[in-house]
Amino acid sequence: MEDFDRPQSSRQAEASKAFLMKNSSNSNMNLYDHLTQLLTKVMDEHPNNAVDVFEEMSYEVKRASLNSMQSNLRDLPQLTATELLAEQQRSLFLQSDNEPLEDETGKPVLPNVSEISFYLEQAEVGLGREEMQRIFLALKKLVDSERLTHCRFWGKILGIENNYIVAEAENREGEEKDHYTIEDELKEQIKEPESLEKEPFEGSPFPHSAHKPQHEVPKEAIGIGANKFAYYVCKEPGLPWVKIPSVTPAQITIARQIRKFFTGNLDKSVVSYPPFPGNEANYLRAQIARISAATQVSPYGFYQTVGDEGEEEQELYWASIEVNPDFEGVPVRELAESLKVWVHHRQHILQQGRCTWENMAEKTGEDTNEETEDEREEELDEPEVGPRLLNPLSLDAEMFNMPPWSSKLSSHLTPEHAIAVLRSNLWPGAFAYSSGKKFENIYIGWGLKYIGEVYSPPIPPLPQKEYPDGPEITEALDPTPEEELDFKDNLEEQQAALEESEESDELEESEEDDN
Fold first, then answer.
1. Which residues sit opposite 399 in a β-bridge?
2. Residue 238's CB: how many other CB atoms inside 10 A?
3. Which residues fall within 8 angstroms of residue 299, CB to CB, at 6 or more apart?
């Protein structure tokens, strides 16, 4: 009876205290003792902004009470991202048992990256000695694992989350199979099963679309044109190299119309207008092809063409070059003062997205048997011809009232030991240097071309009309009540006039009969 005589608030307080003093099954501690110790610690230390450090002090109190139950061993520290990367890069410094690979001429496949780094430092370009040395070891590991016959450091493309270190290798014909593209997957999804027969539609047929899809421009074979070289990328030296797929004309054409920063994730989808046919790996490959075609240059005379200009098969002359064994070098001062002694040694990419022109009108004419030969000849496209190989840089077109190239000496204080440095103004980040007989190209940038103005995406086309306009399918507006009354009155008047005319005609006929 005494419990019922006590006030209800007292019974609730005791119940709450009993709940707080309930021990945990994990730590054998209770919340009442923990709060008591925590408040005692706060009153003893009087910390500034106690409410901000309350959680940390609670953690310290709990940790101190559990010290007796813990081991005296120190906790293992968590590895940082830098330490994890260093652990992955340890394999680069292990000595390899493979013999150094050599090309057909007996030269080592792997270029001297240390020498390249030395010249790039004079040109005030590069990634620093430490990173270049790690890249050199990563390239060596790539050459040994893939047994490449040609490999060079192409450059570094910057990304929002991660960067891409790009290596260029010889792309042998028949080495890579055609990739399963997104367009092929969509075509298979849209394709109707052959077993389903279309039932005849009774009534007026639906209108048919007059749109005829354009034929897709075929991609160049492996080892030719834009797919002459293969490219491997990695995010950091020591991480696995990934071979990106070959490029298609459609990817190059769309890449010229969009501007997207790279994220550093090859599987990332490219959201743009016009829609890009592929993911970031395909977009990266398209940009590499564009940059290489526009900025890979060499001193005049280092390469020579294969074949004669008078040959019938001029494709061999326009598309094939080889190293000139009699090249004696170009003076450095001349390289720094004139663009005429610099030439392009990569094929130009046409508007079609290929280095070699493909006549698509012939393929279109093969599918339509109803056209006559005269109509087909009228539809044949004129072959597109771009600048030939080894074209001087002085013939490059000026854009945005700006020269496409800038050249200088690396040092005017000691010009006898200086090198010539070339910089592209259309592709910021593309550089080339030459010390007379030696030269190299490198790209370090965001992978975007200079457009001279603020970029604005193209406006989508107007939506196509679903049905043709005409009075047969145009829906009329419902008449108002006043219009219905007027129409009814007019109809009655017309009916009355028609009856009167009929009666008058009958009277006239009866009079004629009487006469």
1. 402
2. 20
3. 329, 330, 335, 341, 342, 343, 434, 439
Which of 87-101, 140-154, 305-319, 474-488 has the least mean pLDDT? Answer: 305-319
Q: What does the pLDDT average to over 82-96?
A: 78
- List the chain domain ranges: 2-64, 101-178+217-366+382-445
Query: Measuring CA to CA, how many Å separate 138 from each of 92, 133, 148, 303, 491?
Result: 6, 9, 13, 29, 94
**Residue environment code for 490-503, b if the CB has 16+ CB neighbours within 10 A, otherwise e:** eeeeeeeeeeeeee
Q: Whats the size of the chain, residue-wise?
A: 515
C-alpha–C-alpha distance, residues 328 and 335, integer Å: 14
Cα separation of 50 and 45, whole Å? 10
Q: For the residues of 445-458, what is the DSSP string, one character each?
A: E-S----SS---PP
Separation between Cα atoms, residue 427 and residue 405, nearest integer Å: 10
Residue 361 has what pLDDT?
Answer: 74
Dihedrals φ, ψ of 300, to 5°?
-65, 130
Tokens 């995010």 identify what position?
Answer: 235
Residue 454 pLDDT level (bands cut at 50, 70, 90): confident
Token pair belonging to 491: 């109809």
Please name the amino acid found at residue 111.
Answer: P
Q: Collapsing DSSP states into helix, strand and coil, what is residue 444?
A: strand
CA gap 252, 283 in Å, rounded: 8
